[in-house]
Amino acid sequence: MIFKKIAFYIIFFLSVVNAQQVKEFLRTISSLSEKEQIDSIINYSYTIKNSSPLFKELNDSAYNKAFKLDYKEAIGISLSNLGLWDNYQKDFNEAIRKYDLAKSYIEKTDRFLELGLLYNRYGNALHQINKNSEAINNFKKSIELRKSIDDKVGIGYAYTNIGLIYWRTGRYDSALVNYEEALKVRLLLDDKKLIASNYNNIAVLYYHWGRFEEALDFYLKSYELRKSIDDYYGLAIVLNNIGLINLDRNELSEAKENFYEALIFAKKSEDQSAIGYSYNGIASSFKTEKLYDSAYYYYQQSLNQYSKADHFGGMVLNLINLGDLLIEMKLYQEAEEYLDEALKLSEPRSENLRIAQVYLYKSDIRSENNKKYEAVALLEKSLEIAKGVNKIDLLVSIYERLSDRYSDINNFSKALEYYKLFKIESDKLTAEKNSNKMLEIQFENQKAKELKEKEILLEKEEAQTNLFITIAVAFAVLAIVLTFIIIYIKRSARILEIKNEEIQNQKKLLELQKEELNNKNEELNEVNNTKDKFFSILAHDLKNPFGALIGYTSLLLDEIEILDKTEIKDIVEKTNSVSNNSFQLLENLLSWARSQTGVLTINHKEIELSNLINETTTLFHDIAVSKNINIKCNLNEKVVINSDEDILRTIFRNVISNAIKFSYQKSKIDITLFKQNGNAVFEVQDYGMGMDAETLDSLFRIDVNISNLGTNNEKGTGLGLILTNEFVQKINGKIYVESSPNLGSKFTILLPLNN
């Protein structure tokens, strides 16, 4: 587009907002060429609120003029702006239609900035009609285009939009990845408002995970940035979020203080949704205190503010909160009215989480009114919808109520069925909370460790400063003494040389000691990293199996009188499986520990490898059969080596176990043994998931090793392959790995025949 000639006109009319002044603007630019007039109109429209009818009028005018001239760039850009206006009117299908047309024009030009913006708008409209996969694809296209022109602001927005979709659909891990990508870009821009927004988004994820310390850490970072730029809206949001953490911790006075302070900033910002959010927090704190009248008043205030802002999410949330509150107050008819209104708003948008919550609360009303069968039907409906929502706590509530309601109508088999599901999901929730608590403790420990390291660093710097001062003083004194000696005692020249040599030796000794200290520090860091990994494995991968064992045995103890033989057998089989897996993990841990401490001894003897491999393969027969994996052993050649049988058995077991873990259903594994160049060559080839180059590089490193789930979601620690690598080295062997994603992996181990 042409900008030089129109710059004056745009600057002059930036404050124009009414139709009469628009006409004056159009008259003023009438002396420009037709293309310059179109460009001026489009750029002028950007000074007007996107939802304003005037914004539409200007872009309609630009589109009509551009269409007559066949001015493709302007046709595409004006259509994109008209689609944005439709989006603000909530006519999302019409917006998408215009975006499609705009794309067909802009794609034929080199206007990557406008095309990147169009893909972002397209993604937002698709998300509004729940076409989330298509929305994410458009945001990704926007990122690619904006990277090509280094549009960091646009890249940050696109990553954030992807993160928001994943957050709203309960995929918090994916949301975190995209929020962190957005944060990287925004840190380069040094835009405090955008960085603060990203910190808040990341904190929300940690809040949903129950990792409150980490959430609070990010909220406080966001708060400090927003405070430095007087971002009243942002301060209101982050203070409300901090209040929710304190409310969950039952720290009511702190929570209320947060909510009231948030309300002050929200009113300063004059943003109705922020005011509504603050009222909602205040209402929730009163509800926790069972001050129902106050809670009702503030929920109503919140609903009014969200309604004025036409904020769908806030309106639905408050309607459900009011329904829940009135149920507690035993005002069932009024509660039903609010819940019906929430359902009416949620169903057209397929807001499944809110719909499931509404049916859950409506079932409570039916139960209180002794309409037992209606209560069951509503709960079943809630369950059907909730299964598509990633909310374990919601499923726990539904299963518990279903068990109680079926018991009320004397359908005890159904009651038992749902009670079991309640126990399973409840145990999951407990395990998740315990895991999050462990992560929170680790986070606190890490913070303490970092603080301690800073203190140590300061002490070292202070010690170095004192050392430099001491050395400087020593050299000054030495210079004076040397000058005195040279002038007055020439006979002491030889003595002086000897003293200088002694000083040099001491200096070298200090340097050697410093170097040795640095080496010791590096060794200590390696030991600490290894210890941290070891304890991480103990804390996580041993804790979970024992948690499962406790769960199964508790279920057996509690329900043994009503469980049939098949169910008891199933529980025993699961207990046996968990025990075997835990035993193998413990065996690997102990072997690795012996290896690290130098306690491991090697007992050499003549070993025929074919028999040992066949024995090891037999151990995994049932596991392979369960995954329909065919293990083919090509062991035709007799190979005898002098080595340690227990170490070899551990090596073969870990490599074969790894191949089965990452093999697909109905695949095969080839095991080969032969002699070559004075070595016994043992090869295991699978055709499963495979690995990328980054995973291969860190495969045998305990400090960066990351365990992946197998093809049947089998868990592991990654320690087996690390132990295998160390054992192969201890018996003077070598191990090689070749792998490609989705094509499988090949492990080759060379063992010397004469060791």
Description:
The structure is a single chain. This protein has about 750 residues and is α+β, with helices and mostly antiparallel strands. Among the domains are: about 90 residues, Signal transduction histidine kinase, dimerisation/phosphotransfer (DHp) domain (Helix Hairpins, Orthogonal Bundle); about 150 residues, 2-Layer Sandwich (Heat Shock Protein 90). Helix content is about 75%, strand content about 5%. It contains 29 helices and seven strands. The protein has a five-stranded mixed β-sheet. Strands 1-3 form a two-stranded antiparallel sheet. Strand 4 and strand 5 form a beta hairpin. Helix 17 runs parallel beside helix 19 and helix 27 packs antiparallel against helix 29. The longest helix is centred in the middle third of the chain and has 77 residues. The radius of gyration is 35 Å and the shape is extended. The protein starts with 6 loop residues before the first helix and ends with a strand. The N terminus is likely disordered.
